[in-house]
Amino acid sequence: MEWNEGDRCYAPYIDEDGEERLYPASIVEIHKENDDCYVLFEGYGNVETVLLSVLEACDDLEQAD
User: Fold this and answer.
1) What's the pTM value of the predicted model, to 2 decimals?
2) Which of 2, 19, 40, 50 is most exposed by smallest CB count within 10 Å?
3) What is the tens place of the pLDDT at every residue in 39-53?
């Protein structure tokens, strides 16, 4: 999938129990040279670096225009 800044997705985050779970996020900035991006986790406000290859599309989240 071709990702763009502003796209909404599900991104992995390791929670306080040490479990990796997917959370709704928005892509803030893409770094093509590293194949990663900054995502902003919705409802939490934290920004993390995530590989583009692990993002999951979400049909139930409205995409940015």
Assistant:
1) 0.85
2) 2
3) 999 989 999 999 999
Backbone angles phi and psi of 53, in degrees to 5: -70, -15
Q: In which residue ranges of the chain is pLDDT below 70? A: 60-65
Q: Tell me, what DSSP letter sits at residue 1? A: -
> Where do we find the tokens 């920004």?
47
User: What sign does the CA torsion over 49, 61, 56, 44 have?
Assistant: positive
What is the distance between the alpha carbons of residues 38 and 40, in angstroms, rounded to a whole number? Answer: 7
Could you give phi then psi for residue 46, rounded to 5 degrees? -90, 150
Q: How far apart are CA 59 and CA 22, in angstroms?
A: 14
